[in-house]
Predict the structure.
Amino acid sequence: MTTAAGTRTLALSTDGEGHWRDGDGRALPHLDGCLDIDIWPTPFTNTFPIRREPFAIGERRIFRMAWVSAPALAVRPMQQAYTRLAEHASRYESLDSSGFSAEVSVDADGFVVDDPGLFARVPSA
């Protein structure tokens, strides 16, 4: 990430089983159990839990995410919930003290096309 203060990077890797390492290969045990990453402010990473396993309309699931905040590039575990509202809509809830929630629209492949106030995919010409 490049800001007025300079360029900063964050390197993470996972084994897909909920174990994470930093760019130097050191274990990050505070992220144990996080299967997916959520990078704020991009909606792209909301696709991972939505597509992980199909869930029925009305079903709510809780996920432990490796949450990365920008521009700080700080990473911490975060509990999040997703509720499938309709074929192409889910409610995202941050289960931290912020109480943030949003209804996101997805395409047929589960990719976010609208996250009100944050992101809207522009149709191709």
Observations:
- The chain has a mean pLDDT of 91.
- The radius of gyration is 15 Å.
- The first helix runs from residue 47 to 52.
- The first strand starts at residue 2 and ends at 3.
